[in-house]
Amino acid sequence: MIRFSLVIPAYNEALLLPRLLDTVELARGRYHGGADAIQVIVADNASTDDTASIAGARGCEVVSVEKRVIAASRNGGARAARGEVVCFIDADCTIHPQTFNAIDEAMARPEVIGGATGVRPERWSAGLVATWLVFLPGVLATGMDAGVVFCRRSDFEALGGYDESLDYAEDVMFLWSLRRLGRRRGQRLARLAGVQAVTSTRKFDRHGDWHYFTLLPRSALALLRSTRSEAARRYWYDDR
To answer: What is the largest CA-CA distance in the chain?
Structure first.
């Protein structure tokens, strides 16, 4: 019986995907329900490198998604999910060895509709700390976090998955919808303690550790005017 389906959206992630899959295998091996209870799906979003072949060689189920929108990649992977609980993690992250045990414990509580493990960067600097502090109040106020995001597959399907009209912030909007559904039922989002994922700092490496306070504000109006702005495409899709 499949308990978890872990969906990894990936576009040209041949460099970092193996690092993530190493940690996924470790976490599967630590899961008390057995590694076979965890399905790993790589949603290959029209990659032009070896992403798909690497995923296949590592025993992942590979789903091809041609629409170059990350929400479509997440949804495409989720359509192949057979687990009771669907989980999502970006390909440039790594996960904690106890991830699946912690999610299992959270989802056993009827008051929990889903949630996230939280995330921390692979390195710290003054700029990264300042950026983290900017986002922290919103996380604490809403319970919405990043890292490994999870919910019951039935709830994911009831919400219609991620909004494919959005080029960015689809993850935020999905958690907002999940949170709203939970509030109607008397349920809440869970932020898990002690099993944070670790994310790469490649955006900061490229644009500078303070770029959230310099580069992004200059593009803020363009980002707000349209979910398909050129600024959004350049930052989230074409920035390699």
So the answer is: 50
